[in-house]
Amino acid sequence: MANDVYGIDGIRAAYPALADGHAYLDGAGGTQVPQPVVDAIADAYRHGLSNVGGASAASRRSDGIVAECRRAVADLVGGEPEGVVLGPSMTALTYRLADALARQWGPGEEVVVSRLDHDANVRPWVQAAERAGATVRWADVDPATGELPVEQYDDLLGARTRLVAVTGASNLVGTRPDVAAIAGRAHAVGALVYVDGVHSTPHTRVDVRALGADFYATSAYKWSGPHLAAVIADPVALDGVRPDRLLPAPEEAPGRFERGTLPFADLAGAVAAVDHLACLDGAAAGSRRARLLASMAVVEAYEADLFAYLLGALDAMAHVTTYGKAARRTPTAYFTVAGHTPREVAEHLADLRVNVSNGFNYAWELAAVLGVRDTGGAVRASLAHYTDRSDVDRLLEGVADLARSGAARAAHRRG
């Protein structure tokens, strides 16, 4: 898709941070924020806020912000506002849900996690299962392709399975497993499904019902919002789940899962971020949900084209090794450069004002499967909907420079 069809220049103009001349290819670790989000947060503070449930206009304003944030997040993923649990981070919310759900588990019961996942969708379940005396079973990754084979779940699941945790997309190599097929198998044995959608939400059209997700976690700062998170649950799945809470705190869901006062201004920023995403396709019309689906469709197409260019160029470089060959991926490249540590590559690119990540990026199990966890991991370059061709070209030129500098050093040693 050509840049002028997508309107990339106009999209980039909405992001003040991009004016600094850096190529932000680290969106998987956190995206930049458009001006409407900055304005929404500032406006919320400018007009005054009070805690919810009060008689004042400022309190009613906070009530309205919370309600609208639940509606916006529900629109983003196709959920119900009544099931939107808000919190500081996906990790914090997942620990909270794991602790509450595990109170219903016992010895002999089982949970299934995957080695494709970010550790935030692994360790909370492993630790909760250990406390409950439940057994943890592992879904394995094909190290050659980065795929998570669905068929293995036929052997992993059974009458004692209580929960299956799986990612919507790998934050390391971008693999998008067949979550719906996995969820269908899980539901057939009566298990709940918890999907980590942190890395998939910014790049795909999400429909939690179609995925079969009883719980779907997402982080706003990965889709151009502020630093907060949400778990979107089937309201039925929240019935009977009783987390620890203060006695005066709300007893009904989703409030009983939200500890302490919510960051009202940031919630207003999250609403603005959803509205921003809904406008990425300027021709989209209808409800916010309809506009989001249309906009994310053009995002998927635009990012797929740009990622194919990036990956093809990296694979053509003899001194670069890329990881992951899944058929369905988010635009996330994970690679090493011969003769240089991942940190050295990241520092070289940073000197060129190209921002990437390096290491294992909390994908603890997957980094071990790929054989890079104990050697410094690899370099991760992740595209966002505001990335353009020039950003990618600068990355490729910087990586190519490392081959030339390595050859020069080798020639010098020979001389």
TrEMBL record:
Chain ranges of the Aminotransferase class V domain: 24-395
Domain of life: Bacteria
InterPro entries documented for this protein: Aminotrans_V_dom (IPR000192), Cys_dSase-rel (IPR011340), PyrdxlP-dep_Trfase (IPR015424), PyrdxlP-dep_Trfase_major (IPR015421), PyrdxlP-dep_Trfase_small (IPR015422)
Coiled coil: none
Protein's name according to its UniProt entry: Cysteine desulfurase family protein, VC1184 subfamily
Species of the source: Actinopolymorpha singaporensis
